[in-house]
TrEMBL record:
This is Gfo/Idh/MocA family oxidoreductase. Residues 8-131 form the Gfo/Idh/MocA-like oxidoreductase N-terminal domain. Signal peptide: none annotated. Residues 148-279 form the GFO/IDH/MocA-like oxidoreductase domain. InterPro entries: Gfo/Idh/MocA-like_OxRdtase_N, Gfo/Idh/MocA_oxidoreduct, GFO_IDH_MocA-like_dom, NAD(P)-bd_dom_sf. The lineage of its organism: Bacteria, Pseudomonadati, Bacteroidota, Cytophagia, Cytophagales. Pfam families: GFO_IDH_MocA (PF01408), GFO_IDH_MocA_C3 (PF22725). Gene3D superfamilies: Dihydrodipicolinate Reductase, domain 2, NAD(P)-binding Rossmann-like Domain.
Amino acid sequence: MSTAKKLKLGLIGGGPGSFIGAIHLNGALMDGMFELVCGAFSSNPAKSKQRGEELMLDPARVYGDYDEMYEKESRLPEGQRMDVVAIVTPNNVHFDPTVKALKYGFHVALDKPMTLNYPQAKELYHIVNDAAPRFLLTHTYSGYPMIKQAKQMIADGEIGKVRKVYVEYPQGWLYKLLETENNKQAEWRTDPARNGLAGCMGDIGTHAFHMSEYITGEKVSHLCADLYIKIEGRPIDDDGVVLLRFENGASGVLMASQTDTGCENNLKVRVYGEKGGLEWEQELNNSLTVRFPGEPAEIYRAGTGYLGSLAQENTRTPAGHPEGYVEAFGNLYRNFARCIYADRAGETPKWEWEDYPGIEDGIRGMAFIEHVLASTKSDTKWTPFIVEK
């Protein structure tokens, strides 16, 4: 792998002032496996040009839209053209650029949730599975080392059969009608046409749902949901709670809100099994609390030698040196790149490298949104979780 050339990256979205675009780019570039070569950064050509200048790109490879980018990049000689495209646009501009990228043969890294709606997700599911390029869905929190550690400990049976799962995602940034104050992030995330029909549950609830299945290795079988609009005048939910049943008989509670005034971004996960329990929170992300009956609580720390292989593969610094959100993105992109390099070399990637979210996670996330919306409207409430493909 040391002789492999850098993967050439293109970016769709991430124009001037973009939050998530900058995070994706920093994560992708941090290990030297990618280099940014082109982009269609905004639907406004002038803003796209501005961002290209900020990133010091060749002006000829800063494009007015993604159709132009795909066409012109595909005509460049192999070794010069884009290999991977990162799509960091609002949700209504996920499906079409992903489908077209795969048809051109480009690998795709896509921000979550996967699509604007469930019908698109079902169609994309088959397109991805029939395509040769690899597909990454950036559920960021699965990139944290101590989440990897928790996943491996549960898979190894260290806490026994999972009985209970609590996952909560409190934010407070939408505690008022910020979308009326020229806040671009609030504008599109509260607009059903650009975000989809689920607001808070589509934006951060899907992260919580993914975490509940990823860390436990169990699949949700039924759910019971209530969504709320806490801020008058907002067209889609900004708060909600979901009860979960898992296929192994475990129960769960999922809470997500963007109106918890004063809260920042502290995703929390607690999993309890027959033998013990595990607890993690994003604002203290380098620690994993492990509990067993009759024993003092243990604190596992990132960067230490006693962690499992999943955590070790996704740890960058010695113990006591904080790693965080950007590094979690970097772990997803690094594992993605390692798998592409292995494919090119005709080798089988290490299983730890292939531990990144993909199309299965994407369609389950969109099914979650669909079932949460249905359950909220239903008098029956408990809704079987069926993933149609």
